[in-house]
Amino acid sequence: MSEDGGVVVFGGPSLPARPTGEWSELLEAVKLRPPARRGDFLTVLPERPAVLVLLDGYFFRVPSVSHKEILYALEEGVRIVGAASMGALRAAEMAPFGMEPAGEIARRYRTGEIEGDDEVALLHDERPPHRSLTTALIEVRIALEERRSESGDRDPESEAGFLEALGALPFWERTRGTLREVGSRLLGDRTTEDLLDRLEERSVKEADARVALRRALEPGASDSRRRPAPVFTGYLEGFLEESLRVPVRGPGPEVSLGDAWRLARLLHPEAATFVAAESRRLGRAAVAREIGVSVSPEERGALASKLEETHRQEFGRPLLPATEYRREAEVLGLSARFEEVFRWRERSASVLACDPEEVPGELDSLRPISQDLIPPGWITRAFSFTPGARPAAEAASTARELRRAFRALRGPVAEAELRSLIGELWETPAGEIREESRRRGLAPTGGREEPSLEAARLVIVAERLPRPLNRYPKWREELLESSLDRCEPAMAIAIA
Length: 496
What we know:
The chain is mainly alpha-helical. 53% of the residues lie in helices and 4% in strands.
């Protein structure tokens, strides 16, 4: 594990609004983040956390933390503890792969005593401390059980009817007022008021959250936990580039690595050349792997460290999870090794399944691998090691700042205006824009807006302003003056 380490906790309504005593000590020992949404695990991985604790997470109108990103984090060697709310649900599902369930709610999900997602669902304030506005069904269920155990007062039929009535309501309607109204009708006033008092005094989610934080902070616990077997999580790479953040120097908003690369492909004249060169590199690496060429773990590790160091020097911290540095090191190492061992035209022909006379003598002339066959995000990852990455991120940030300020005034931008801007920037007739988009790696992919339109939508306010209002022109000029030739720490390692 990196020296960065630390425990990162995604929490909100499951945590006490006014922590005191042990709670203050626990929260001072961790890095607290808001409830998690999809991509947040990927966003935090470049910080090299030792432990991730998932307590609360968004869902319903916001995509929730996915199982694949949890697998990805586990493969990174990060210990993950889940409890209380979304964390309990995901931990019960992901325990076979190495996620650690903690607390009573997670236990009940694992044993099948509860099954529905809505057992833990509630409505809460968007702002810290994310105060609960409704009551989770599991809290009511356990409060009833405790009351029955302590008092011996039991009416199974009324209790079952009460829980059934609450379960039939949407989670956002399970307010204190609704609990009192339904309870008074089905349980009686005295039992209902006793139940409401119990819910006010004690939270099962909060108790489980305390268990999870204690466990996460146990000295040496991460060394004793079982690690999962490797699971292929490659599909995440297209989503990964949208989750990874690039730090910026100015006051503008942080941007994703995907935004920076889209903007560079829209503006930089070398974008198509870079895409072709990286496609060719990936093709060489694929051929090298096909014929049994490999890069030793020691070589790959040394190269990955150099790649990470280039980001630390340029951005002050790693941009990528450790897995991505290793993958990039593998590609660079195989590509370099290919040039040394793959020199015979006949051998090229046999691997590429073509006539020897059709194989060019120069390796640089090998046809680039089709963009449709390149894993999403691999060329984006390569772009992050070019001198253009920094100004592209800064330009994207300042463009987003202007777009945010002007969106309310302008309203939506028509697609025709976006395409007009693209044609002007590329000095390309409308009929040739689709082909130029393909050359720049901005061809449409399933289910999303065309990347070229996304990029144009990001910068159109900044590009159309009659005079500059922030530093966008400076960063745009610096981007255009930068090179998209890769910084090559790979060459510092002799591939024997």
